Amino acid sequence: MKYNTEINRRFxxxxxxxxxxxxxxxxxxxxxxxxxxxxxxxxxASTAMEKVNFDAGYNRVGTxxxxxxxxxxxxxxxxxxxxxxxxxxxxxxxxxxxxxLKKRLETENWGYELPPLDYPANIVAWNxxxxxxxxxxxxxxxxxxxxxxxxxxxxAFGQEGDHVLLLTPNYSSFFTTIHQANMHEAESxxxxxxxGRYEVDWDxxxxxxxxxxxxxxxxxxxxPTGNCWTADELRKMGDICNNHGxxxxxxxxxxxxxxxxxxxxxxxxxxxxxxxxxxxxxxTSKSFNLASHRTGYMxxxxxxxxDKVLKGGHQRLLLNIMGMIASNEALKYGDDYIDEQNAxxxxxxKYTEKFLAERIPLLKYKVHEGTYLAWLxxxxxxxxxxxxxxAAELTQYNTENNITATDFFGVTSIKSYTGGSYLKxxxxxxxxxxxNPGENYGKGGDGFMRMNLATxxxxxxxxxxxxEAAINAI
Length: 474
Ligand SMILES: Cc1ncc(COP(=O)(O)O)c(C=O)c1O
Hints:
- The protein has a seven-stranded mixed sheet with strand order 2-10-9-8-7-3-4, with helices on both faces.
- The longest helix is centred in the C-terminal third of the chain and has 25 residues, at 335-359.
- The radius of gyration is 23 Å and the shape is globular.
- By secondary structure, the chain is α/β, with parallel strands linked by helices.
- The chain has helices at residues 2-11, 18-28, 31-39, 66-74, 95-105, 119-131, 146-157, 172-180, 202-210, 231-243, 272-276, 303-311, 321-333, 335-359, 379-385, 387-400, 419-431, 457-472; strands at 82-83, 140-143, 163-168, 184-189, 191-192, 198-199, 215-219, 247-251, 278-283, 296-299, 373-377, 404-406, 412-414, 433-434, 436-437, 448-452.
- The chain folds into two domains: 119-334, 3-Layer(aba) Sandwich (Aspartate Aminotransferase, domain 2); 336-472, Aspartate Aminotransferase, domain 1, CATH 3.90.1150.10.
- The chain has 18 helices and 16 strands.
- Bound molecules: pyridoxal-5'-phosphate.
- The site of pyridoxal-5'-phosphate has 14 residues, from helix 7.
């Protein structure tokens, strides 16, 4: 069998560690299976399992969840009714995932182990079936998380001190990842339309790329603005980058979340010139709420880019077996789950728009296109609360009285506030919900807040009612 031949040849390659060996073989073997599955037009037949009732939600308090338990840990004096910060979901995962993990748990040995042999084939099949996007199976790499893959890429393609372009507002941890690579962010602030959609400032984008930036992180769909970038927009970004030798780093982790009639267009599917100058990053972690499994993947149609990432030190690790089993099951059986989840999340977004328009007109929001993250315009609320002045006063008080806070890594410092973090504190203190300040997302984020809608309607209603009561009491 071709797979075994591949393994045997690699096993005896001098200087190749067992983990590196299997990590590489994992994603380059199984060609026949990939072709067979990829050629199928429909999803593989699922084993009979009950469906997930998204409306039932999932109580995550007491599970060490970051969204609920960590927020409570750092705010012990606060009541927290609803965590809506970090981007994960309060839903059960796909039952086939849980069943497969339970089955694996029954095997009481955890030695080195191959991933499910059809995992790469299922990555290829999922992308083809759902998005008509071709993923070159031989060029897929494991990645612990999407950000780990992005970091490897920055390190491999850039130099310390380089600038990395982001369309802002954009995902806050990109800034951290860029700094981890000892690089700097270059922000091209987007233009917000009257309907709340964000558009690229093309003159600025082109000027920055033409000015010498060689790395552009695309977020498609974009967290936190919710843009499902159209093919035309993506081509325009790609043409500018290709004309100036700028690599497109396409983070498409949110691609499975598309609301209403919107569409996700895979960047690498736009044509050869775009595919050849890009690397794409994906996982099942957002789509099926598997983030704690730390299992992602990346690929490029350009083999030399993959080799460059590998030479740059990307770990060819085997990932945790449970994560790969979970991802594999999700990709095999998850079509209906994603469709039903998107329908539920679309209704959540509509519900939020209506609730805010009718009952909290101070906050502005229109149903967005992709992701489950609502980007709320809270500028009038921020002005009403005079957050900048209040943040300065509170910081001064804390400084004078040596009031400190200790972060997750044990670093203690004076508890200081910005306008955004004061607004977050105000919402937690008064509405007992946790949402993220827009300033974390770069230029254009001041006065906005990101609310995670991936919860059941009852919990969402509770959060919105709390917010309404808090604002009415100002
Ligand atoms: C756009 C985007 N990329 C990456 C991540 C993090 O992915 P991972 O945990 O796989 O590194 C997130 C999480 O919120 C995200 O929104």
